[in-house]
Input
Amino acid sequence: MDNKRLKRPRDINQRAASTVALATGQAVEDTPEAKQAPEPTPEERHVAAVMLGRKGGQTRAKRLTPEQKQEIAQKAARVRWGRKS
Output
């Protein structure tokens, strides 16, 4: 064998089996690798981000007091309707 280390499986059971096989001297030829999920497309990532953002906004709104909500709304109104330089 080469001096390179073998790539070990990510699954804990497969890794244990390969470790035992290496320790006992048995040849490990074909250890099935766990298939990785394909990379999500940008559209799928966008949908997930929007869902999480909505969830976070609702949680934050529940946590704020009415006075805090009023301050945030007033600040937003000043920025929106304020004079542009």
In short: The chain has a mean pLDDT of 80. The chain is about 60% helix and 0% strand. The two ends are 72 Å apart (CA to CA). Residues 19 and 25 are 10 Å apart (CA to CA).
